Amino acid sequence: MLFEFDPDQRLWQDTVRDAVAKECPPALVRSVVDGGADPAPLWRTYNGLGWTELTDPTEAVELGIVLEELGRAVDPTPYLATMTQFAPLARAGTWAGQSGAAAFGGVNARQDQEGWVLEGTARHVLDGDRADSLAVVTGEGVFVVPAEEATAVRTSVFDPLLHVADVTFAGVRVTDDARGTADPERGRHLALAGLALTMVGACRRILDLTLEHVRTRRQFDALIGSFQAVQHKAVDMHVAIERARALAYFAMMTIAADDPRRRLAASMAKAAAGECQALVFRHGVQLFGAMGTTWENDLQFALKRAKAGELLLGGAAEHRALIAEECHATDL
C-alpha cells in the first residue's frame, strides 16, 4: 500500500479544505453553541457538494479526507454518524440526502406472523436524536427504520456540538423488507477509522491554534515559542498527530482494499487517536496557560471534540486490549 496521497487525492484535500474554511468557519460553529443556530443549511451544503455520495468502500480514503477536515473545523452536522455508522449498514440509494445514525447494541428483534418487533434501548447513539433514519443492529440482522418510530432522549456530553442520545424501541414493528444483509462488523471498522480521523483533525486544530499563540505571546520579554520547553511540547504534539493520522489512513486503505487486516487496523487507529488526544489536550492547555479552556477561546471546541471522540466506540485502553488479543491469536 502507498502511504502518500496521489495527485487526485491531494487535489481533493485542497478542495475540501477550501470548502470547509468557507462554509464552516469558527464563527458558524460558535453561533450553533451560543445562539442555537441551525446547522441544517450546512448539511444541505455538504449534500450539494456531493460529499454524502462517498459510500463506496473503495472511496474510504476520500471520505477520510473529508472527515479529517470536518474534525479540524469541529463540524456541527450529522455527517460523521451518517457516513461512517449509518451508511455502511443501509441499502445504497435508499437514503439520499437524509441523515442517519446507527444503534450498535441494546436492541433485540423477534419475529411474529406480521413481521418483526424491535425492543430495547440503544445507549450513546451518535446523532440518534436528530437522524432521519436509524440502522439498528440486532442478533437477527440490521433493520433500517424511520427515526420517528423510536423515542430518542439527548444526553449531555462534554462536547456541546455533539448530539448523543439514548434511543428506545418499544414494540416497534417493521416488515421483513426493512432487514438488510450488511455486515455490522465491517461497518464498525469504518466507524472506528472515521472517528479516529475526526479526532486527528481536531488535534490538528489544537496544534495550529497553539502554534499561533506561542508565536505571538511574550513572556520575560521574549516570545514563548522561543523557549525550548515550549518547542519540545509542540514537537511532541506534532509527532503524536502524525502517528495517529498515518494509522487512521492505513485503516481507511484496508477498508478500501477489503484487506483482512482492517479489523486490527481500525482498532490501532482508534487507540492511536485516543493516545494522541490525551497528549495534545494536555500540552495544548498548558501552552495556552489554561486560557484555552475559557469560553471566549475557540480552542475549547477542538479540545472537546477530541476528548469526546475518545469516549465513543471504546477508548484507547479497550482497543489496545483488542489489538493484544488479536496479535496473540494470530501469533504475530
Explain what this protein looks like in three dimensions.
There is one protein chain. This protein has 10 helices and 10 strands. With 332 residues, the protein is an alpha+beta fold. It has 3 domains: 7-89; 100-180, Butyryl-CoA Dehydrogenase, subunit A, domain 2 (Beta Barrel), CATH 2.40.110; 184-329, Butyryl-CoA Dehydrogenase, subunit A, domain 3 (Up-down Bundle). The radius of gyration is 20 Å and the shape is globular. 46% of the residues are buried. The mean pLDDT is 91.
CATH superfamily label of the largest domain? Butyryl-CoA Dehydrogenase, subunit A, domain 3
SSE order, one letter for each helix or strand: HHHHHEEEEEEEEHEEHHHH
CATH first level of the largest domain: Mainly Alpha
> How many domain units?
3
Largest beta-sheet characterization: 4 strands, mixed
Mean pLDDT: 91
* CATH topology group of the largest domain: Butyryl-CoA Dehydrogenase, subunit A, domain 3
Q: Enumerate how many helices there are, as a single number.
A: 10
Termini gap: 20 Å
Beta-strand content estimate: 15-25%
C-alpha-based Rg, rounded: 20 Å
Which helices and strands occur, and which strands form pairs?
Layout: H1 7-23, H2 26-35, H3 40-49, H4 60-73, H5 79-86, E1 100-103, E2 107-112, E3 115-126, E4 133-138, E5 141-146, E6 151-155, E7 164-174, E8 179-180, H6 184-214, E9 218-219, E10 222-223, H7 228-256, H8 262-287, H9 299-311, H10 316-329
Parallel strand pairs: 1-4
Antiparallel strand pairs: 2-3, 3-7, 4-5, 5-8, 6-7, 9-10
GO molecular function, one term: acyl-CoA dehydrogenase activity
Keywords: FAD, Flavoprotein, Oxidoreductase
Protein name: Acyl-CoA dehydrogenase family protein
